[in-house]
Write a structure and sequence with these properties.
mainly alpha, 2 domains, 8 helices
């Protein structure tokens, strides 16, 4: 993750630090985790960094929740992209038990515990593919993002910050 964050820091190096961490926080895979890590490496004040990263991570989620189902339906019509949808459906089925068992709280925990393959984008994908209520999903994804912000703040600005 750190090497990917450093790549994007270098790529957007001419931009303001706040713009760099905002863009990183918008991106799938990196999301808030990458944004906060970049913010700590760029020495952005914690409170400012946390607010920018949370906003950047949450901003695309309503769009994903509203339009992903239509995009997936469209992808299922074409032979080449149908394989992607089938692959995603298999991945979602692997997480179904966790989400079904804990419901929306499970969605928040899935998004909030910063592990590879989890986050707001993946949580939104799960919510859409499992047919969860979009408004409730957004609320619990937001709760998960805030949980991840707390955990990553401790790691990026606390433990890792003191090591780096």
């Amino acid at each position: 993750m750190e090497s990917l964050v450093n790549f994007f820091i270098g790529l957007f190096g001419g931009a303001a630090k706040e713009v760099v961490i905002f863009i990183i926080s918008l991106m799938p895979i990196l999301e808030l985790r990458g944004g906060l890590l970049a913010a700590s490496l760029l020495h952005v004040e914690y409170v400012k960094a946390a607010m920018i990263c949370v906003i950047g991570n949450v901003l695309p989620i309503p769009i994903v929740l509203l339009f992903l189902e239509k995009i997936l339906d469209l992808f299922e019509k074409w032979k080449v992209t149908k394989k992607i949808v089938v692959w995603l459906e298999k991945k979602v089925e692997n997480k179904r038990e966790q989400i079904d068992k804990y419901g929306y709280l499970g969605l928040a925990l899935f998004v909030g515990i910063p592990l590879p393959g989890t986050g707001a984008w993946t949580g939104s994908l799960l919510a859409v593919m499992l047919g969860m209520n979009k408004k409730k999903s957004f609320l619990f994804i937001l709760i998960g993002v805030l949980m991840a912000a707390i955990i990553m703040s401790i790691l990026s600005y606390g433990i890792l910050g003191s090591i780096l």
